[in-house]
Amino acid sequence: MLDFDLARMYEVETRVLNQAVKRNNKRFPEDFMFQLTKEEWSMLSQIVMTYPAKRPKTALPFAFTEQGVAMLSGLINSDVAITVNIRIMRAFVAVRQMLFNPPINKTNELQREMQELKQYIEDVFTDYNDINEDTRLQLEQINRSLAEMQVQNRRPPSKPRRKIGFYTDEQRKNNDDIIE
Question: What is the extent of the structural domain holding 111?
Fold first, then answer.
């Protein structure tokens, strides 16, 4: 974040913020804060349409990293600065989370799943069609043999069965297969 943006949020002048930083220079190593070069500032000012008119044209702005903004919270001690600093820290955390865990696009997720399913089905049919003709003939013969075996098991026995139950004397005389 740039110094003049932070100053506006903290409700202090940019020069006051920069003076506090210069007085505590040891707290702001290069990975906490750095001054923009003329090229960086010219490129940035072309992108950003509005910047404070009070900013001296010769002074280049300072840029603060997340750690630099956290360090500023100890220097500028006002209720506004504390509230703003908490919001800035939450914003940094939200941006970091979005970078590492981008939101899932449901349409893209469904397209990916459909593509995986399509590939799986194609693989299954490819495997199925890879069975050669000899194997298919062998499977047909096995199925035919099994069907014949089932039909044979269902046929009634060739020899008539002996009748079961109580017989009268007359029935016994007429029927030869009754065993006493």
Answer: 106-152
